[in-house]
Amino acid sequence: MEISKKVILTGHFGVGKTSLVQQFVKQKFSESYLTTIGVKVDKKQVDVDGAKVNLILWDLAGESSAIKVPKSYLLGTQGIIYVFDVSREETFAYLDDDLLELKKSMLEVPHVILGNKSDLMNEEDLASIKSKVPHEVAFTSAKENTNVEEAFLNLTKMML
Amino acid sequence: MNLNELKLAYFKRRSQIVVFDHDGIVLESCNTLSSISNGINLFEEIPFMQGLQHEIAKLRIGEPVIYNCIHTSVFDYQSFFDFIIRKVEDGDDVKWVWLIYDFHEQYENILELQQQRNVSHLQKTSLQKVNKNLVEEIETLERINEGLKTSGSSNILIKSDNQLINVDMKDVLFFEAFGDYVKIHTSKQVHVNYNRIKNIETKLPEDQFVRVHRSYIVRIDKIENIEQSSLQIGDKIIPIGQSFKSSLLDRLEQL
Fold it and tell me: Does pLDDT of B187 surpass 90?
């Protein structure tokens, strides 16, 4: 049986949302930064607990805050990936407010929070960030393909 | 407007209209952008549509849902689109109309501007971080150097090429400004330090060094000869700035 789940990726610009999708879908990483405007839609099928799940990934253009996401983009969302950049504090300083705003539109939608670019920090710095963010955070590196697939699969399990 | 003009205008808009039913099955398509055959299930074949079935079914008659700037593919046709989906009554039947507008050119221009804006912001943030680290390093070095000065040592610590170097001030010939850096010429080698010459000047013992030009501070006992507008240290001719000339002569007279 195949099922489809729409997942949005949100967070500030330059945090690596598109790189995470590229790594997950195409196993590719590019050093050069390319801005996303609007939304880029990609798809990947995964097998989770015997179910074939088509993840429809809506990679939203990063803004200074998630509250600027057009409402139509959120329709039908079944999972949220909030991405921040561990090396730029401004990208997780308002994480709480952004999540609250998103949850207003999508009360019961499961979410994961990813601290991307973990390759730029040492263990001590990551532990310090974890203590600053009052949520469960998974650290990823799209560049080194660390924890990327695990993060998407974890969310898929939460959505089933 | 005759029919041909209408067609031309329609093609110029680079758009397509697709009519489908509750299950997403295509009933009609004008196929101006992408070939979409009747009978295809959009909720299974088009990634953008997947996961939207429930929301699209809930639309009220005539009330559109608008998606701007969607970068995706409609079968083999990839572009930046605007999509409008509307539920319409057709006699006793209900259908859905999907309007596809290809705005590739317009959105490419926006993309370019947005790219410039974001890159500029990221570079600025990155530079601010580098500057902050450098300022912290300079402050640390200044504290250490202050300690050395108090203890009567003639040495200072400077950072050059990511190394901390212990420089004996007695070996220094002169300091030379070099953009955001200062070159420290000693009898043995030249060190390059991220600093401003004005900042260096305030840290130096006044009885040993003198500013002779906006870009030069020299060690007084290393001056070999002085001419009208220059002085010589080793084989280096250093210019004397007009505004620094009298203070240089005053200092030399005091010796």
Answer: no
